[in-house]
Structures are given as C-alpha cells and as structure tokens.
UniProtKB/TrEMBL annotation:
This is GPN-loop GTPase 2. GO terms for cellular component: cytoplasm. InterPro entries: Gpn, Gpn2, P-loop_NTPase. GO terms for molecular function: GTP binding; GTPase activity. PANTHER family: GPN-LOOP GTPASE 2, XPA-BINDING PROTEIN 1-RELATED. Small GTPase required for proper localization of RNA polymerase II and III (RNAPII and RNAPIII). May act at an RNAP assembly step prior to nuclear import. Keywords: GTP-binding, Hydrolase, Nucleotide-binding. It holds the Pfam family ATP_bind_1. Binds to RNA polymerase II (RNAPII). Belongs to the GPN-loop GTPase family.
C-alpha cells in the first residue's frame, strides 16, 4: 500500500512551497519521499522532482501549437495526461515499493470542481496502483480578513471536497502573515471551526457592495452549514510543530497510521475515533520519531 498527499488549492496558495517544506519534514522523520509535479506551468521547482509532467507535455508548446492561453493550455495538458495515464503510471511504479508520494497540482481551481480530467487521473492512479491519498487543500489565510472572501473560500473548499470525494483536509496556509492583515473580525478559531455563519452576515451587511448580495450569501452560508463538513487546520510551513500536527492528521485520514499494524476491526475503529495525539502515544516508536524530529 502506498500513501501520499494530493496538494491542491487556488493559485499562489502555497502548494509548491508546501511540497518542498513537507517533503523535507517527512524526510527528517525517516520517510522516503517522492514529489510528483503535475503542474505544467511550474518553471522553477524548489524541490527535487521524481516525476515531472513537463517530461510528457510542455505548456508553452501547447499554447503555441493550439493557439491557447495559459488556462486553456493547462486544461489541454491535463486532458493529455489523462489520455496518457500509462506514462504517469510507468513513472510511479518504481517508486511504489518504499516511497511516500506528494503530488503538486496546478492552481486552476476549475480543475477540481468543474472538469473531470484531474479527478479521473487521480481515481485511475488510486485504483491501478493501490494508493491511499489525502487531498490537502490549501487556502490562503488572507481570505479570513474579508468576510466575503471567506465565504468564497468555504464554497471552494466544499465544492472541492464534494468533487474529489477523497479523504480531505482544508488548510489555511501562510498563517505566519495573518497578523499583518490587521485585526480579524473574529478570533482564528471562528474561521478554522467554521462557527455560526450568521455572525458573518452582520459584518457583510456593513459593506454596501456585499449587502447587495445578502440573499445569495445567506443561501451559500446555509449550504455550507447544511453540509457541515468544512473546517480548516492552520499551517505555518516553516514551523516544525505546525507541520508535524498536520502530518498526524493526514496520517490518520489516509490510513498511514494503521499501516503495518496487525489488529482487529474493533481496535482500528478505536484508533480512528480517538484523538490524534493518542495514536502516537499508542505507538511509541512512531511518536518518538516524530517528536525527535520536531
Ligand atoms: N509568508 C509566506 N509565504 C509563502 C508561504 N507559502 C508560500 N509562500 C509564498 O507565496 C508565493 C506562492 O507560493 P507557491 O508555493 O508558488 O504557490 P502555488 O500555490 O504553488 O502557486 P501556483 O502553482 O502558481 O498556483 C511564493 O512567493 C511563496 O514564497 C507561507 O507559508 N508563508
Ligand atoms: Mg505551484
């Protein structure tokens, strides 16, 4: 069984930086990591890349050959990758023995709630290669500084969760910058826990532009609250403790924590229902490796 993360999120939310930081952290705690770049627009990669979509197709070539702009070109590249999934499978196969996989995706969010190419690629890989993957959806914490943008972030997160239908963790990235945006309308837990959104309506009403769309925003808030599945974890990619806490959540969501454990279904469900720290306490070796590293 092979474990890993699918790193997605809007442009500039920090996906490539995250893959770099996360791969370094995972190596530190003893995992063999392979980063897979599936963004054909990623020119200067900060990490050493095990597989690069650029070796299959180049965005610049597509734009010239098919007279497409960068976004249309990107969709073409993802369609091309889906048609040539054998290429990706053959590149991944040698890594499957002992690597943990990190997939760096493009920032065009329409790939994750509109088009089916990225979803088909992911599902084919999961099925054919027996992968256990968690979606790590990065959203810039800056969006908390504006109630309207925060609602957009919630809707985007919900759509991505429903579209991909995989273990999923929403992350507020670049949390190190949050104080520079001024005082937030609520404390950070309000945003991470997605608490009562009716309080947000009051703040939206203070802005004449937002007030115009009150009914729509209220409807969107109701959709988010009815589903009740969106929340966020905060991440400072330069802080080992912050990265370590996220790793624990991811390990639980994709089943990494259970790998190599011979136990009954009852034991597994106890672990699944318990708090994350308890898992590491229960498995002292893993716990000590993790905490020696951070
Ligand atoms: N302060 C701060 N800056 C960050 C962080 N993560 C990323 N950045 C910066 O944000 C910018 C965008 O980061 P990327 O990692 O390229 O973001 P991306 O999501 O891969 O961007 P696209 O691939 O274009 O969608 C870069 O200038 C990074 O240095 C963070 O945690 N804190
Ligand atoms: Mg990137």
């Amino acid at each position: 069984m092979v474990f890993g993360q699918l790193v997605v999120g809007p442009p500039g939310s920090g996906k490539t930086t995250y893959c770099n930081g996360m791969s370094q952290f995972l190596k530190l705690i003893g995992r063999k990591v392979a980063v897979v770049n599936l963004d054909p627009a990623n020119d200067a990669l900060p990490y050493e890349c095990a597989v690069n979509i650029e070796d299959l197709i180049k965005l610049s070539d597509v734009m010239v050959e098919h007279s497409l702009g960068p976004n249309g070109g990107l969709i073409y590249c993802m369609d091309y990758l889906e048609k040539n999934i054998d290429w990706l499978e053959s590149k991944l196969e040698p890594l499957l023995n002992d690597h943990y996989l990190l997939f760096d995706f493009p920032g065009q969010v329409e790939l994750f709630f509109l088009h089916s190419n990225a979803k088909n690629i992911i599902n084919k890989l999961i099925k054919k290669l027996n992968l256990r993957l968690t979606v790590v959806h990065l959203v810039d914490a800056h969006l908390c500084s504006d109630p309207g943008k925060y609602v957009s972030a919630l809707i985007l997160s919900l759509s991505t969760m429903l579209h991909l239908a995989l273990p999923h963790i929403n992350v507020l990235s670049k949390i190190d910058l949050i104080e520079s945006y001024g005082k937030l309308a609520f404390n950070l837990e309000y945003y991470t826990d997605v608490q009562d959104l009716s309080y947000l309506m009051y703040h939206l009403d203070q802005d004449p532009r937002a007030a115009k769309y009150r009914k729509l925003t209220k409807g969107l808030n109701d959709v988010i609250e009815d589903h009740g599945i969106v929340n966020f974890t905060t991440l400072d990619i330069q802080d080992k403790e912050s990265v370590g806490n996220l790793v624990k959540l991811i390990d639980k969501s994709n089943g990494y924590i259970f790998s190599g454990i011979e136990s009954s279904a009852v034991e597994f469900s106890k672990i699944a229902a318990g708090p994350t720290d308890w898992d590491y306490y229960r498995y002292p070796l893993l716990f000590s490796i993790l905490y020696t590293a951070i």
